[in-house]
Specification:
The complex is a heterodimer of chains A (113) and B (116).
Chain A: E1 3-5, E2 10-14, E3 19-21, E4 24-26, E5 32-38, E6 44-50, E7 56-58, E8 64-68, E9 73-78, E10 87-95, E11 98-103, E12 107-112
Chain B: E1 5-7, E2 10-13, E3 19-24, E4 31-38, E5 42-50, E6 53-56, E7 65-71, E8 74-79, E9 88-95, E10 106-107, E11 111-115
Parallel strand pairs in B: 2-11
Antiparallel strand pairs in B: 1-3, 3-8, 4-5, 4-9, 5-6, 7-8, 9-10, 9-11
The chains are: A mainly beta (113), B mainly beta (116).
C-alpha cells in the first residue's frame, strides 16, 4: 500500500540547533517527493521537491532534504533553526502517473528560546 | 499573482444550515483540489478537478457534500445540511498542469468551518 510515515508527531529543538525531520514512504512507482510547511493559521507552502537527479535538494528558508532510495526516506534538514521555523511540516509523495499526493501526518516543530 | 484565494476565512454556522466555501485558483492553473484538514484525520483530498471537470470525487465523505467548478477561475464546495463533524479547515489548492502530483500544489489560506 502507498503510504508516507512521519514518525515524529512533535519535535522540540533549541534555537540555533540543527534539525532533522524524518519521512519514510512506501510507493510502487518512482516517487516524486515533497516537503511542505504550514505555519499556524496558514495554508501549506512548498519547501522543496525531488523528482530526479541530485539526491540532495535545496529548498527555501535554508532547508534541504536528501532522497535515499535504499532507505525509502526523504529527511528534511536545516543546520540552524530560527524561532520563525516553528510550524508543522508535511512530507508528501506522488508520481507522474498519478495526480494525487499521499500525505504524511505531519511533524510539529517547537523551538525553544 | 495573488495566489489561491478562499472565502470566507472563517465560518460559524448551526447544524442543518447550508455552507458554501469558495475558491479562486491561480490564473493559468488547470488543476484544482479541495482538501479537508482535521486533527484526527489529517489532510484528506475531497475532490480533484482538471480543466473544470471533476476527475475524482471519491474523497467526498457523503452526499451532503458537493463541489462545482463552473469556470477556470472559480470553484465552490457546498455542505448541505451541515453537521458538527464537518468542522474542519478546508483548503483549496491549484496546480499548473493536468497531472498535478508532480507539480507544486499551491494552497489557499483555508476556511475554518465550525458547525455548532
Amino acid at each position: 500500500a502507498q503510504s508516507v510515515t512521519q514518525p515524529d508527531i512533535h519535535i522540540t529543538v533549541s534555537e540555533g540547533a540543527s534539525l532533522e525531520l524524518r519521512c519514510n514512504y512506501s510507493y510502487g512507482a518512482t516517487p516524486y517527493l515533497f516537503w511542505y510547511v504550514q505555519s499556524p493559521g496558514q495554508g501549506l507552502q512548498l519547501l522543496l521537491k525531488y523528482f530526479s537527479g541530485d539526491t540532495l535538494v535545496q529548498g527555501i528558508k535554508g532547508f534541504e532534504a536528501e532522497f535515499k532510495r535504499s532507505q525509502s526516506s526523504f529527511n528534511l534538514r536545516k543546520p540552524s533553526v530560527h524561532w520563525s521555523d516553528a510550524a508543522e511540516y508535511f512530507c508528501a509523495v506522488g508520481a507522474e502517473s498519478n495526480y494525487q499526493l499521499i500525505w504524511g501526518a505531519g511533524t510539529k516543530l517547537i523551538i525553544k528560546p | 499573482d495573488a495566489g489561491v484565494i478562499q472565502s470566507p476565512r472563517h465560518e460559524v454556522t448551526e447544524m442543518g444550515q447550508e455552507v458554501t466555501l469558495r475558491c479562486k485558483p491561480i490564473s493559468g492553473h488547470n488543476s484544482l483540489f479541495w482538501y479537508r484538514q482535521t486533527m484526527m484525520r489529517g489532510l484528506e483530498l475531497l475532490i480533484y478537478f482538471n480543466n473544470n471537470v471533476p476527475i475524482d470525487d471519491s474523497g467526498m465523505p457523503e452526499d451532503r457534500f458537493s463541489a462545482k467548478m463552473p469556470n477556470a477561475s472559480f470553484s465552490t464546495l457546498k455542505i448541505q445540511p451541515s453537521e458538527p463533524r464537518d468542522s474542519a479547515v478546508y483548503f483549496c489548492a491549484s496546480s499548473p498542469t493536468g497531472r498535478g502530483s508532480y507539480n507544486e500544489q499551491f494552497f489557499g489560506p483555508g476556511t475554518r468551518l465550525t458547525v455548532l
